[in-house]
């Protein structure tokens, strides 16, 4: 048999920023593939709703209200998950945010907030969960990067810096942790319909510009990110590590 398994039955996954948008879609998608899912977010009501949806699929859900820039909170929650389930197999570092400012207008507070939320949180979660995965000699870490980490976009210099760093962090962690059976990859989305993008996509001129730069001629639907995440989390990606898969409608191949 040559067809590998894409099923995640008996796997335990953790998704950060799981209350809305991409995180919610990925958490539910991993559950649909068979995983039980721990959910991290700052807003309890959001992750409780996602937990309800996952349980309706017949999978277990473990919601935690966590500030993923806080090492102590992450460590405490991860320890609770491991004590309850015995392991953590999959980590999806999705928590992120953006403040759209021209470079000359970026404040120190904006810089620190975006860096901590997007980049520090991904490293802290990877480090803390990675220690457990090292002991188990198995793990799948999936970082949600962005096309902004590969190409230049307007009004997002700090956001772009975090996503470029996340792509490079993916490579370094894959290099260091491959010997422990830990695969580390990232997904780079273009524009998808999320709470983070809904206002800017409501501008018809901006939306037209986005579509014009996208070979497939549209923005993405959230479920179109689930397949790549399930692939990276499954046995189908056993020999894939250190890679970034751009789910972008072809935007990053655009030429003049």
Please provide a written account of the structure.
- With 256 residues, this protein is α/β, with parallel strands linked by helices.
- The protein contains eight helices and seven strands, in the order E-H-E-H-E-H-E-H-E-H-E-H-H-H-E.
- The protein has helices at residues 21-32, 44-56, 71-85, 108-136, 157-177, 198-201, 204-212, 226-233, and strands at residues 12-16, 36-41, 61-65, 90-93, 139-144, 182-189, 244-247.
- Strands 3-2-1-4-5-6-7 form a seven-stranded parallel beta sheet, with helices on both faces.
- Helix 1 (21-32) links the parallel strand 1 and strand 2 (36-41).
- The longest helix is centred in the middle third of the chain and has 29 residues, at 108-136.
- It is globular and about 50 Å long.
- 44% of the residues are buried.
Fold blueprint:
Elements (H helix, E strand, L loop, with lengths): L11 E5 L4 H12 L3 E6 L2 H13 L4 E5 L5 H15 L4 E4 L14 H29 L2 E6 L12 H21 L4 E8 L8 H4 L2 H9 L13 H8 L10 E4 L9
Helix pairs in contact: 1-2, 1-8, 3-4, 4-5
């Amino acid at each position: 048999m040559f067809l590998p398994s894409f099923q995640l039955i008996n796997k335990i996954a953790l998704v950060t920023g799981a209350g809305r948008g991409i995180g919610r879609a990925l958490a539910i998608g991993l559950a649909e593939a068979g995983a039980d899912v721990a959910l991290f977010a700052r807003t309890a009501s959001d992750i409780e709703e996602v937990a309800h949806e996952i349980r309706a699929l017949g999978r277990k859900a473990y919601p935690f209200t966590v500030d993923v820039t806080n090492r102590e909170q992450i460590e405490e929650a991860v320890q609770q998950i491991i004590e309850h389930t015995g392991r953590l197999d999959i980590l999806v570092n999705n928590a992120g945010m953006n403040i759209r400012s021209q470079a000359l207008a970026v404040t120190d507070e904006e810089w620190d907030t975006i860096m901590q939320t997007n980049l520090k949180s991904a490293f802290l979660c990877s480090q803390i969960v990675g220690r457990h995965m090292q002991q188990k000699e198995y793990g799948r870490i999936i970082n949600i990067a962005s096309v902004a980490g590969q190409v230049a976009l307007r009004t997002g210099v700090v956001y772009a810096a975090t996503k470029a760093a996340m792509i490079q962090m993916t490579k370094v962690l894959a290099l260091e942790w491959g010997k422990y059976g830990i695969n580390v990859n990232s997904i780079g989305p273009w524009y998808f319909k999320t709470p983070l993008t809904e206002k800017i996509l409501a501008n018809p001129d901006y939306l037209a510009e986005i579509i014009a730069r996208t070979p497939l001629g549209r923005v993405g639907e959230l479920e179109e990110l689930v397949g790549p995440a399930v692939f990276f989390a499954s046995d189908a990606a056993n020999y894939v590590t250190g890679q970034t898969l751009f789910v972008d409608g072809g935007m990053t191949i655009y030429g003049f």
